[in-house]
Design goal:
The chain is of the alpha/beta class. It is built from eight helices and ten strands. A six-stranded mixed β-sheet has the order 6-7-8-3-9-10, with helices on both faces. A four-stranded antiparallel β-sheet has the order 2-1-4-5, with helices on one face. The longest helix has 28 residues. It is globular and about 85 Å long.
Length: 256
Amino acid sequence: MIEFSNVTKYYKSNVGLDNVSVRINKGDFVFLVGPSGSGKSTFVRLILKEIDADSGKIIVRGEDVTRMSSRRVPRLRRSIGIVFQDFRLLPKKTVYENVAFAMEIFHQPRKLIKRHVPQVLSMMGIADYAYKYPDELSAGEQQRVAIARAIVNRPRILIADEPTGNLDPDTAWEIMQLLNMINMKGTTILMVTHAKDIVDRMEKRVIAIENGRIVRDEFGLYGYRQALQGIEQTFNTVEADLSQTLRGRFRRGETR
């Protein structure tokens, strides 16, 4: 679905990505993590062909993005939905109009818009808010609208850039459940995040970037330290149980 082969991108003297190779398969749910300036934004912008790689190859849905002509870029982006931290809703349009607009810019038929928009609003649990404006909604409701807008064209890939960054923990978890549901329907999800608690709780694939390089790609927790702490805690528990068993056998005079 998404494949980077020896991709390098520099900004003057600063590294964006340094010889990165990775593959994200169809239907994957991947967290992209790392400190600020590590290369996460560069990774996403290269997928969307907002910038060009200095070297290497990027394949998205079977197409070589690095060689893609400018006239084919809109078609690429149509196959990718994007959700942002700050929602980016149009303030003078209703919920329905915000979601419909995502179809209108791709010149979708009006009949299709009238059918798809209510379906997606219902899926996101905001059908009753169709004729409200963004400033009448809570942050969580606005993010639901943003997700509806991102998936209304039925993209094969959904990129979520810190989608829970402006939400309280309970609302953030509700949004994650929605994203998980979308993933289970077959959409590949790449989520950029610093939310360690969510990453640990979801237990999905984690790609960690530092200084433009992929330093870890595995299922599980947000970072090394947390994984090591878990291993250490398990080891200590086993050690304590074993010691208690041996002490008990010694007191009973058991030698075998």
